[in-house]
C-alpha cells in the first residue's frame, strides 16, 4: 500500500504576500498586541527576575568547588593528585608538602583550580578517595573583570562552605 501524500498549498504565492509589506505589518501588529497585553498584566510571563530573585539550585548540581575539612578543621586532602590526574581540562594544580599531624604524610601547600578552564564535569569529585573535594557550594555565577580572579586557591577552597545538608550529599550530591 502506497504512503498517503498530503499536498500542502504553497504559502507566500499571492502578490500581496510576495511584496512582504503587508506581512511585515501583520507581524508588527502581533508583536505590539503582545507588548500591550504584557504591559497590562505580566503575571503570566515566564520571566525570572534575576538577580533580585535567585534560582533554587538543587543538591547534586555541580557548582564551584570547595575542599572539605576534618571535624577539627584540618584539611582532608592528602595531596594524592588523583583529582588533578583525572581532570580532563587540566585545570587543577596541586603542590604537595609534608604533613606534621597523625592524619597523613602529605597535604597540599597550594591547590589551585582555574575556573575559566574547568568544564564542571565533576571527575575531580568522583576521583577523590577521601571526599576531600566537593562541588556543593551552590555557587553558579562567576563574574569578574580580571582573569586571575578565576584561579581559586587553597584558602578560598577551604573557607567556602557547602550549601546543602550532609544527608543530601549522601543521596548523590556532587
Ligand atoms: S570539574 Fe572537571 S574540569 Fe573542573 S576541575 Fe573538576 S575534573 Fe577538572
Ligand atoms: S582533593 Fe582528593 S583527589 Fe585531590 S589531591 Fe586531595 S585527596 Fe587527592
Please provide a written account of the structure.
- The chain is an alpha+beta fold.
- 26% of the residues lie in helices and 13% in strands.
- The protein has two domains: 10-47, no CATH class; 66-170, Alpha-Beta Plaits (2-Layer Sandwich).
- It has helices spanning 15-18, 21-40, 82-86, 123-127, 154-159, 166-170, and strands spanning 66-67, 92-98, 106-114, 133-134, 151-152.
- It has a three-stranded antiparallel beta sheet with strand order 2-3-5. Strands 1-4 form a two-stranded antiparallel sheet.
- The radius of gyration is 27 Å and the shape is elongated.
- The relative contact order is 0.17.
Q: Within the CATH hierarchy, at the fold level, what is the topology of the largest domain?
A: Alpha-Beta Plaits
Please trace the helix and strand order, writing H or E for each element. HHEHEEHEEHH
Enumerate the strands of the largest sheet in spatial order, edge to edge or round the barrel: 2-3-5
What proportion of the residues is helical, as a percent range?
Answer: 25-40%
CATH architecture of the largest domain: 2-Layer Sandwich
Amino acid at each position: 500500500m502506497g504512503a498517503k501524500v498530503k499536498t500542502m498549498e504553497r504559502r507566500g504565492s499571492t502578490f500581496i504576500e510576495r511584496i512582504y509589506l503587508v506581512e511585515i505589518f501583520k507581524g508588527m501588529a502581533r508583536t505590539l498586541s503582545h507588548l500591550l497585553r504584557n504591559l497590562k498584566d505580566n503575571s503570566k510571563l515566564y520571566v525570572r527576575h534575576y538577580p533580585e530573585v535567585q534560582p533554587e539550585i538543587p543538591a547534586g548540581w555541580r557548582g564551584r568547588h570547595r575542599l572539605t575539612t576534618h571535624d577539627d578543621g584540618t584539611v582532608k586532602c592528602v595531596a594524592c593528585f588523583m583529582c588533578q590526574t583525572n581532570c580532563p581540562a587540566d585545570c587543577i594544580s596541586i603542590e604537595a608538602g609534608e604533613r606534621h599531624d597523625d592524619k597523613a604524610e602529605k597535604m597540599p601547600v597550594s591547590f589551585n583550580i582555574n575556573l575559566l578552564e574547568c568544564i564542571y564535569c565533576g571527575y575531580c569529585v568522583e576521583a577523590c578517595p577521601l571526599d576531600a573535594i566537593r562541588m556543593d557550594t551552590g555557587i553558579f555565577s562567576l563574574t569578574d573583570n580580571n582573569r586571575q580572579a578565576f584561579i581559586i586557591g587553597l584558602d578560598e577552597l577551604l573557607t567556602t562552605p557547602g550549601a546543602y545538608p550532609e544527608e543530601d550529599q549522601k543521596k548523590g550530591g556532587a
